[in-house]
Design goal:
mainly alpha; Serine Threonine Protein Phosphatase 5, Tetratricopeptide repeat; 2 domains; 8 helices
Length: 191
Amino acid sequence: MDWRKLFELYTAFAYAFRLKFGEQALRMAIAITVIGLAMLLWPCFVFRPDQPLSVPAIVSLIIGIILAGLFGHIVVTWKTLPMPGRGEVDAQSLPSSENVQAQQLLEKAYSYVDVGKLENALRECEGALELEPGWAEAHNLRGVILDDMGRAKEAIAAYREAVRLAPGFEEAVQNLAEAQEEERQAKPGAK
């Protein structure tokens, strides 16, 4: 089993859950964790040592483990969850924790990218950058959006700014390299 892929899937689920339910997501995750723990403990109260576990008890244990584990982890790692499509980022690529509005704008931009509304995504991303001009992740996303819109030169400039702000931001470094290579190949006479 590829644990890295499984973790990426879990992270995408956690991010989607957080994005869909916003601030209520944490309370919902806590409630679902409690339900999962209750399902996990239920067989302990009805289990009699002289009888084997019943199928409903085994199913309850399995569902309880999944719910308590998944949503419990969301609760514990709420502030530090890596976000899908953002790669591993360092502290320099994150906005100041006080700027919630910039974070919300960038999350809206990601949502618009997911549904192909690139103009809206660009507007939200640029709004986040107005609030947090030194946010490497926002510059990287701006580059992705511009690249998808066919505006390669502007995308390269955005990737360069992301890399300048956070040299350890691997996704931005990779995006910059790929965009530069595509631009070289697009030039007449390029090999």
